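Sample entry (179 residues):
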Amino acid sequence: MTCCSKHANWPQLSRRGVMGAIALGGGVLLNSSLRPGVSRASGHAEALLLTCMDYRLVNEVEAYMTKRGMRDKYDHMILAGASLGALNDKYAVWNEVFWTHMDLAVQLHEVHRLIVIDHRDCGAYKLVLGDAAVKDAETEFKSHVKQLYALRSQVTTKHPHMEVELGLMGLDGAVTQIV
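Predicted structure, serialized as tokens:
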């Protein structure tokens, strides 16, 4: 039996239809979890961590957070480009996803700190900003700093209580704090 014949009675949805169904399901979940009288998720997270989706650094990010004593104490959000994923005009829907997750982390887990870790040699920076933005190490660093500062500014405007930590991870897992 092939996949198509196995699921022949399932409704056929276009990509837009599938995305609409996912959005509807998320809206129902969001609506039910934030209504008065509906309890919050149990627990308290110390931070919301925003990182890039780059598979090369998954273990390094986990090791960094564990070394800081934060294992199992943070919510983790992943967007291509991390800070760039949260703020860019090319993929504006990513911005909406970031802000929705930020609001949920605050409401559900009383998050009061955002930790943003961008990384070197980020494909999203090349894709969204172009090769000129990452043409050499100094230019790449400045591009990340500019984007990280812009995100911190918007976060502290929308959530004045929020502490924001910024970092840039090398491919070796070392994190440079951006102040």
